[in-house]
């Protein structure tokens, strides 16, 4: 077996796309529960996990940092957003306009990530030809 790092960026992009997909599900769940009394919106954190993983690397170059990321620790984390906050009398803190904006933003991010993954694979194909 060859020890190679050609898939390092693809693996990190894949984890980011998984987290974006998970965030899409959380947003859809928020929208589905917009009229549920007491429901608190959920969100997904990934960028801070990636930043922490890259910051704690002993290496200086980005390539080395990405190569040293432990993928089993790199995933999206679901959390309850503003648990104690609600501007509605029923205790629900979901706003449809905010969720729609988050959904649009996350869709753009997901599409960008999948395009980046495809570009990395196209680069690999070009090198192997």
The residue ranges in which pLDDT falls below 50 over 5 or more consecutive positions are none
Average per-residue pLDDT, rounded, comes to 87
Strand content: 5-15%
Please compute the radius of gyration using only Cα atoms: 18 Å
N-to-C CA distance? 21 Å
Structural shape: elongated
By secondary-structure content and strand pairing, the structural class works out as: mainly alpha
Number of helices: 4
Order of helices and strands: HEHHEH
Strand order within the widest beta sheet: 1-2
Tell me what you see in this structure.
With 129 residues, the protein is mainly alpha-helical. Helix 1 (8-32) packs antiparallel against helix 4 (96-128). Strands 1-2 form a two-stranded antiparallel sheet. It is built from four helices and two strands. The model has no long low-confidence stretch (mean pLDDT 87). The two termini are 21 Å apart. It is 57% helix and 6% strand. The chain has helices spanning 8-32, 47-55, 62-68, 96-128, and strands spanning 42-45, 77-80. It has one domain (8-124).
């Amino acid at each position: 077996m060859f020890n190679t790092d050609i898939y390092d960026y693809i693996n990190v992009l894949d984890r980011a796309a998984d987290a974006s997909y998970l965030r899409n599900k959380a947003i859809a769940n928020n929208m589905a529960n917009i009229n549920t009394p007491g429901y608190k919106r959920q969100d997904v954190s990934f960028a801070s996990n990636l930043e922490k993983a890259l910051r704690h690397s002993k290496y200086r170059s980005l390539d080395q940092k990405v190569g040293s990321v432990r993928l089993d620790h790199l995933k999206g984390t679901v959390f309850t957003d503003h648990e104690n906050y609600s501007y509605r009398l029923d205790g629900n803190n979901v706003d449809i306009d905010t969720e729609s904006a988050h959904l649009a933003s996350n869709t753009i991010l997901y599409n960008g990530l999948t395009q980046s993954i495809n570009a990395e694979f196209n680069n690999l194909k070009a090198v192997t030809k």
